[in-house]
Specification:
Number of strands: 8
Helix content: 25-40%
Order of helices and strands: HHHEEEHEHEHEHEHEH
CATH architecture: 3-Layer(aba) Sandwich
Oligomer: single chain
Length: 266
């Protein structure tokens, strides 16, 4: 029976490896690249660059993109995926500004020009503070959270913290939770340090929820979007053609769905 302690030892070694690697797997910031240089950011005339002083003394970057509509219809907080930067979200930000909303793009710690180490425990309060700063600058007292992939998990957790001013939630390519992926790697959900339990948040929200998911998503199955849509009677699921990284926001149906839930473009 010598194989039993060998098998146990190998499994424990596998668990130790995953424990040490899970942050790199969830937050592959290096894949996102360094981001735009300062001169290129300055050339984006509609971008107001803001550095947020966080409660632990760290400074995180955020971009504020304002609408030309006066008054604005509110504030949208767009939260990007795990291999992206705020630099990659200007197309979506400008589509929201065309619809009369101001937009804030908060950067995660360890991404682009923002130093630090990303984690659920830090990203969520960082985003809440960025929303507060953007609200003070724009005068907006209502916020729509729009998250893509990892950002959908962030958005759901932030929703709990800003529920008193939450006007809606848009989840693109959302997962039920990061913890739900654990068994794929042979470990229990409790093993996951940053679980992002969207499935536990959605049932209690009393705002419109739009879920956008690719039918051929190879990373987060569309089944996750279907499960989430079933957790709240105010949730609407729109399935779009494509895969996880095929650029769903470039499809007309993506923005048609947003207009149907949150009103047409101005």
């Amino acid at each position: 029976m010598i194989w039993i302690p060998i098998a146990v030892g190998l499994y424990l070694a596998w668990c130790a490896f995953l424990w040490s690697m899970q942050a790199r797997m969830l937050y592959p910031a290096a894949m996102a690249g360094p981001g735009l240089p300062n001169a290129a950011i300055a050339a984006e005339r509609d971008v107001e660059r803001v550095w947020i002083e966080q409660d632990d003394g760290a400074r995180t970057e955020a971009w504020l993109v304002r609408t030309g509509s006066v008054p604005s219809r509110g504030l949208v907080c767009f939260l990007h995926g795990n291999a992206e930067l705020i630099d990659d979200a200007l197309f979506e930000a400008r589509e929201w500004t065309r619809r009369g909303f101001d937009v804030v793009l908060p950067e995660y710690r360890g991404y682009g020009r923002t130093p630090g180490t990303p984690s659920q425990a830090r990203i969520v309060p960082d985003v809440v503070r960025a929303i507060g700063e953007a609200s003070e600058r724009t005068g907006a007292n209502r916020v729509i959270l729009h998250g893509r992939s990892l950002g959908s998990g962030v958005a759901a957790q932030v929703a709990v913290e800003v529920e008193d001013r939450l006007a809606g939630l848009v989840l693109e390519s959302p997962f039920r939770s990061v913890a739900a992926f654990a068994w794929r790697f042979g470990v229990p959900p409790a093993f996951v340090r940053d679980p992002y339990r969207t499935d536990r948040v959605l049932p209690s929200l009393a705002v419109p929820i739009l879920i956008l998911h690719a039918t051929d998503d190879e990373i987060v199955p569309v089944a996750d979007g279907r499960v989430l849509a079933g957790l709240n009677p105010r949730a609407r699921l729109v399935e779009l053609e494509g895969s996880h990284n095929s650029g769903l926001s470039r499809q007309a149906g993506y923005w048609t769905a947003i207009d149907e839930v949150f009103g047409p473009e101005s």
